[in-house]
Automatic annotation (TrEMBL):
<dbReference type="InterPro" id="IPR027916">
    <property type="entry name" value="Kinase-like_dom_ROP"/>
</dbReference>
<feature type="signal peptide">
    <location>
        <begin position="1"/>
        <end position="20"/>
    </location>
</feature>
<keyword id="KW-0808">Transferase</keyword>
<feature type="region of interest" description="Disordered">
    <location>
        <begin position="30"/>
        <end position="107"/>
    </location>
</feature>
<dbReference type="Pfam" id="PF14531">
    <property type="entry name" value="Kinase-like"/>
</dbReference>
<dbReference type="GO" id="GO:0044773">
    <property type="term" value="P:mitotic DNA damage checkpoint signaling"/>
</dbReference>
<dbReference type="GO" id="GO:0005737">
    <property type="term" value="C:cytoplasm"/>
</dbReference>
<feature type="binding site">
    <location>
        <position position="251"/>
    </location>
    <ligand>
        <name>ATP</name>
    </ligand>
</feature>
<feature type="compositionally biased region" description="Polar residues">
    <location>
        <begin position="85"/>
        <end position="102"/>
    </location>
</feature>
<dbReference type="InterPro" id="IPR017441">
    <property type="entry name" value="Protein_kinase_ATP_BS"/>
</dbReference>
<keyword id="KW-0732">Signal</keyword>
<dbReference type="GO" id="GO:0004683">
    <property type="term" value="F:calcium/calmodulin-dependent protein kinase activity"/>
</dbReference>
<dbReference type="GO" id="GO:0005634">
    <property type="term" value="C:nucleus"/>
</dbReference>
<dbReference type="InterPro" id="IPR011009">
    <property type="entry name" value="Kinase-like_dom_sf"/>
</dbReference>
<dbReference type="InterPro" id="IPR008271">
    <property type="entry name" value="Ser/Thr_kinase_AS"/>
</dbReference>
<keyword id="KW-0547">Nucleotide-binding</keyword>
<dbReference type="GO" id="GO:0005524">
    <property type="term" value="F:ATP binding"/>
</dbReference>
């Protein structure tokens, strides 16, 4: 009798699971655009994430730009996961509460009005996963592989072909040297503490961890934690290895908050979730849901997925003053940052070619971002990444803005801020976001690439904005010193000065520089003739 009941139950679960998987496959073959006008959120996608959309994942053979194209794999579904994040009391302290598997959440009542069909689909997904676990040992490997492809695919590697840019090979050689050098540890005390807490209590190194995907609900991702790649003011980035051996970069957000002060905890959590949503939703603002095109055509390094540890709360309190959030941004991994490459460059012709190539590529990628109506807001050497093949990518969109919106600039890296934005930030007043905000930061980054220092002797780690403002008030672009700058061409000197105009209305944008300056039309031998 028990055997018959078990057999009937197994057949029922199998039938339900096959039906559920069929629904998933059918839904993935349909293209879903933006939400209807009457359901669009009032805030911009920068503030609230992105709507239900689909993005192609995976690669296959060759294409003109050197990437691999999709080989018969269906697009992965990027669901509207933002409702799960908005359900945290860190985000909605005044909303109604309900109890979930990861603790007590404060759920906005508008999120509870979900169609009955969506709830039925959730039940179908649950039964499909249960049936798959029960029946998987009895399914032949070929069928098993077919079903596995409908689940979460691996995050792809960055794979550009050579010959796309002048000087690309020289820059690729220096990127190869990065593998032979040790990365510097975090210098900020807060991030050193976060690294220690993450390694000891949240994600121990060299341990296989199972994450759930928020872009593909119901999918699991197996990653093994590796070394620390870098750290910033609010995050640490680690190298992790997928089951197929491909490495990815995973950003873990953390913040400082006084546990005894509820307002401090809520404020820190709201700020961290806003940063995470802003960066995870950047592909929606780019108007291109294909992550491959964003990477290989726009050369922007955006998150491929948002992961979380299942069965855990949305945040960890491993130490009384540190909060680590259970939402992790996963990216394709690059060879390193421009900040890592600069110390390897010298006065040789190969270094000259690498600097020229990096300069041209940085200007082009920022100009491309501006053409889409976005302002990066935090350009600096550590946010320009370089692939193994010498292609410069732009990453870290935690502080991206839509051109023309009114906003207050957060305090990020004082040394790279323009004088007008420093004054606005210190006064906490709103300013209209313009493209020239990036122009100033780009000029500082190019100067650092060639000279190994910032203009007018400003220290990168300088945190006293009064000193920075005093230095900027005493100097003009004409007083820039290009001595000991590794033979920087006159055309690039002109570019830097035009991007550093004190008057924002006279300051050039990268797109204007590409259109009007000859440095983007010269070949390598002509560059060498200018030195």
């Amino acid at each position: 009798m028990r055997a018959q009941v078990a057999l009937c139950l197994s057949l029922f679960l199998f039938a339900t699971g096959v039906f559920g998987i069929k629904l998933q496959i059918t839904s993935r073959q349909k293209k879903v655009g933006r939400l209807p006008a009457d359901t669009q959120p009032e805030e911009s996608a920068l503030e609230t994430g992105f709507s239900d959309s689909r993005a192609k994942r995976g690669f296959s053979q060759a294409s003109p730009d050197g990437r691999r194209q999709s080989a018969g794999r269906s697009p992965s579904r990027r669901s509207d996961w933002i409702s799960e994040i908005s359900a945290s009391p860190l985000e909605t302290p005044s909303s109604a509460t309900s109890t979930g598997r990861s603790g007590t959440y404060a759920v906005d009542r508008t999120q509870q009005r979900r169609p009955v069909w969506n709830r039925f689909r959730a039940v179908q997904t649950h039964f499909a996963r249960l049936a798959w676990r029960l029946c998987r040992p009895f399914i032949c490997p070929s069928v098993r592989r077919r079903f596995r492809h409908t689940e979460h695919g691996p995050i792809p590697a960055v794979n550009f072909r050579m010959g796309l840019e002048t000087g690309q090979a020289a820059l690729a050689d220096y990127c190869g040297m990065l593998r032979l050098t040790e990365r510097e540890a975090c210098t900020e005390t807060a991030q050193q503490v976060s690294d220690l807490l993450i390694s000891t209590q949240v994600m121990p190194p060299d341990r296989n961890l199972v994450f759930e995907s928020l872009f593909n609900p119901g999918s699991r991702v197996n990653l093994t934690r590796g070394e620390l790649l870098g750290c910033g003011g609010t995050s640490n980035v680690y190298s992790m290895t997928q089951e197929d051996g491909t490495k990815v970069a995973v950003k873990i957000l953390s913040s400082y908050a006084q546990m005894t002060n509820l307002a401090s905890v809520l404020s820190a959590g709201a700020s961290a979730m806003k940063i995470m949503r802003r960066e995870a939703g950047i592909s929606e603002l780019l108007g291109n849901q294909d992550l491959d095109d964003i990477l290989y055509n726009d050369r922007l390094l955006v998150p491929s997925d948002v992961l979380r540890l299942p069965g855990k709360n949305d945040w960890f309190f491993p130490e009384q003053s540190t909060v680590i959030y259970n939402f992790f941004l996963a990216f394709p991994i690059a060879a390193g940052t421009l900040e890592d490459v600069v110390p390897l460059l010298d006065t040789t012709q190969k270094s000259f070619a690498a600097r020229v190539s990096a300069t041209v590529q940085m200007v082009k990628v920022v100009a491309g971002l501006h053409r889409k109506g976005l302002v990066h807001g935090d350009l600096k050497p550590s946010n320009f990444l370089v692939s193994n093949s010498g292609i410069v990518l732009l990453g870290d969109f935690s502080y991206a803005y839509v051109r023309g919106q009114m906003s207050t600039f957060p305090i990020i890296t004082w040394a790279f801020f323009s004088p007008e934005n420093i004054r606005m930030a210190t006064q906490f007043s709103q300013v209209r976001v313009e493209l020239t905000h990036d122009s100033w930061m780009l000029a500082f980054t190019i100067y650092f690439l060639w000279c190994g220092r910032l203009p007018w002797g400003i220290a990168i780690e300088e945190g006293d904005y009064r000193k920075i403002v005093a230095i900027l008030d005493q100097n003009t672009p004409e007083t820039l010193n290009f001595h000991n700058c590794n033979g920087i061409p006159a055309g690039i000197q002109q570019l830097i000065r035009l991007l550093l105009a004190k008057d924002p209305s006279r300051r050039w944008t990268p797109e204007k520089a590409i259109a009007e300056l000859n440095i983007f039309k010269l070949n390598r031998s002509e560059y060498a003739a200018q030195t």
